[in-house]
Amino acid sequence: MRKATVGTTGSLLLASGLVLSASVPAAAAPTAPADRIFRGEDSSDRAPDCTEAKCVALTFDDGPGEYTDELLDVLDEHDAKATFYVLGSKIGKFEDTVERMAEDGHEVGNHTWDHEDLATLSADQIKDDLERTDRAIADVTGEKPATMRPPYGSLSDTAREAIHHPILLWDVDTLDWQHRDSDKILDITLDETDQGSVVLFHDIHESSVDAIPDVLDELADQDYEFVTVTDLFEDDLEPGTAYSDARPKQ
């Protein structure tokens, strides 16, 4: 069994992707009648066995946006699955796009309602924010998200205890939001990606979406399989625990 990497004690995950926050198990996620957890349409039928295959999870934050449908086209052309950490406040404007994510077999995750720093909020504020976003996603996809990603990777002990989702961070930060350079995005991805990596992009930037065809081609040439985060971790995820990658244990 591969070992997922979790954070160490602290309160913040910096833009570089360095994990400075720890996994503090939270109470088991509440269950509600007729609620389903989102894992991607038929993802279990399509996903490779990541204990055998060379898997990587491409993840996209802060959308959906005006370039997301173009990205979905590219992913479809490459038969690649990805995970989208969406903002609840944007779903109303892009309902068709979010619905398409689910129909195409991608995973839709919770990235809060409007990108507030969870380390600055109370437990009740965090719960309300995530539940509101869960409902907005479920209203479109029919399923609640299985995982969440905190904006900026920022967490506190209060946040960890209040979050009733597995927390998905990353081990490869393309810094695409900063330099907006498609060539740099490709270079960073190729230099830093390894089996079991979780790679961070933002589909709200045109330069990021423009980089993805080459990212997919180059990584495919290295025999990578593109899977959702829950397929990468094979559902071995605990609520309130933060994960940055599923690289094989050395």
TrEMBL record:
Instruction: Give the residue range of the signal peptide.
Output: 1-28
List membrane-spanning regions: none
Q: Which UniProt keywords apply?
A: Hydrolase, Metal-binding, Signal
Domain NodB homology, first and last residues per copy: 54-227
User: Does the record carry Signal as a key word?
Assistant: yes
Query: Quick check: keyword Metal-binding in the entry?
Result: yes
Q: Which PANTHER family match?
A: CHITIN DEACETYLASE 1-RELATED (PTHR10587:SF133), GLYCOSYL TRANSFERASE-RELATED (PTHR10587)
The name of this protein is Polysaccharide deacetylase family protein
Organism phylogeny: Bacteria, Bacillati, Actinomycetota, Actinomycetes, Streptosporangiales
